[in-house]
Amino acid sequence: MSPLVISCSHNPASRSAILAREAIAAMEAQGAQPELLDLAQTELPFCDGGASYGHENVQPVRERIIAASGILLATPVYNYDANAAAKNLLELTGQAWNGKVVGFLCAAGGHGSYMSIMPFANSLMLDFRCVVIPRFVYATGQAFEQQTIADPAVQERVKRVATDLLAFSEALQGLTKDAD
Ligand SMILES: Cc1cc2nc3c(=O)[nH]c(=O)nc-3n(C[C@H](O)[C@H](O)[C@H](O)COP(=O)(O)O)c2cc1C
Question: Which pairing describes strands 148-149 and 144-145: parallel, antiparallel, or unpaired?
């Protein structure tokens, strides 16, 4: 099983995508073989609670989530929450997340939305029994220059969360995947 990094932004100049790539590099440096699921490159329907589950791209994405040893969700903060693409993915794939270890890499416009990932985290914990890594990355535009992370503290934080994901996933391998 490999860790899965999900990049949720559809912005070609996405900063959360930079966090995603940095986390992948950090895990590779530790001998892991993380995979990337880029929602900007993956056409998915809006969840309608019915026919959308049958879309040709939904089942392969669901299988990648089920197969993941742990998941890092790299998301923009939009309107004090994860972006709609992240929420739509969760709506489309729901039970595939059962019992997963999940960490967050958040790109935001300002510091005021620091706690905004909590409703998403709550759904993962309470609906799908996920173990949410309590340390997450929250980076504003000041942390970036061009397509790189310029702030060494954010670089270090990404490495720390990537290391946490590997450690939590290893330690919790036997975690039950049922939703009871
Ligand atoms: C529709 C929209 C809503 C946003 N809402 C917030 C917000 O509530 N809090 C915040 O700190 N930044 C907010 N931002 C700023 C984004 O989080 C910021 O631009 C971030 O870099 C986006 O991630 P990305 O670069 O990976 O696409 C918003 C941006 C957009 C376009």
Answer: antiparallel
Mean pLDDT for the chain overall: 97
Output the domain CATH number for residue 134: 3.40.50.360
Tens digit of each residue's pLDDT (9 = 90 or more) over 10-27: 999 999 999 999 999 999
Structural domain containing residue 161 = 4-171
Looking at residue 179, what is its pLDDT?
67
In a domain, 180, yes or no: no
Q: How far is the CA of 77 from the centre of ligand 1 (A)?
A: 5
Phi, psi of 82, rounded to the nearest 5 degrees: -65, 160
Rg of the chain in Å (alpha carbons): 15
As separate numbers, helices (DSSP H) first and strands (DSSP E) second, the chain gives: 5, 8
Who lines ligand 1 at CB under 6 A? Answer: 9, 11, 14-17, 76-80, 107-110, 113
Atom of ligand 1 nearest to the CA of 112: 11
For atom 31 of ligand 1, the residue with the nearest CA is 78
Q: Is residue 141 part of a domain?
A: yes
Tens digits of per-residue pLDDT, 110-128?
Answer: 999 999 999 999 999 999 9
Q: How many domains does the chain have?
A: 1
